[in-house]
Amino acid sequence: MSLSHRVPDLGALELLIAVARHGSLGRAAREVGITQPAASSRIRSMERQLGVALVDRSPRGSRLTDAGALVTDWARRVVEAAEAFDAGAQALRDRRDSRLRVAASMTIAEYLLPGWLIALHADLPDTAVSLRAGNSAAVAALLLAGEADLGYVEGLAVPDGLNGVVVAHDRLVVVAAPSHRWARRRAAVTPAELAATPLVLREYGSGTRQVLDSALAAHGGLAAPLMELASTTAVKSAAVSGAGPAVLSELAVTEELASRRLAEVPVEGVDLRRALRAVWPRGPRPTGPARDLLSLSRAR
């Protein structure tokens, strides 16, 4: 027979300690939040389990037997150990809940996540947040290695080994410096032209590159890049300097388009929309601050 069948549960032991403290089954029942009949039934069940009488009941109250007094001393040690266990578990939960490790692809990290994290800080001011930014493949790798609690990616689908949910939508745009010939043309660029033209691009593994590769696969695929850069900021700078046309998130070029440092180049016949996703290791949804950030980013 297992130990759990031979040792009374914590609720019964706490009731017995309360009887010893009050000398009354009724007052002990009120302390632990049950009715007196339920308390009497629990004491009788414990007596049958242990094979000894624990409480003498009389019109003047309830008194522990000698065996009951000894069992109560042991019960106090068990309850104290349980309280220590609970305190330790709570400390572990607090340690977990006091930090949040986020990994995000570059566009989300630069243009969406700061606002989400400011809102999270208002709700959870004691939570320390660390952020690692990289392309979507790097975000997936961090999550699978247990080095991040929640991730955000921009690719075509949820990476292998992860679960995810769409939190926003985005559109890629073709941009060029105002001096570039594409910025001055009236006709839209065709998919074949876009595919055949060397562009300033993000690296393989980025969500932007995945979407563009997929969109142009039926039109001959991308030409060899004019430049292949590892950050959105670097791609923008190259485009602004006149190096060549670039493809970037609409979120990333709002300021440059408004100030006319870049011009949007119309493109016809190609779908450059994409979903932005929150992702986490396959299994249950995130808990603690990661759950809160997930809810917040979906709501916004």
Automatic annotation (TrEMBL):
The keyword Protein biosynthesis does not apply. Residues 8-65 form the HTH lysR-type domain. Keywords: DNA-binding, Transcription, Transcription regulation. Residues 281-300 are annotated as: Disordered. PANTHER family: HTH-TYPE TRANSCRIPTIONAL REGULATOR (PTHR30126), HTH-TYPE TRANSCRIPTIONAL REGULATOR CYSL (PTHR30126:SF39). Belongs to the LysR transcriptional regulatory family. This is LysR family transcriptional regulator. It comes from Streptomyces kanasensis.
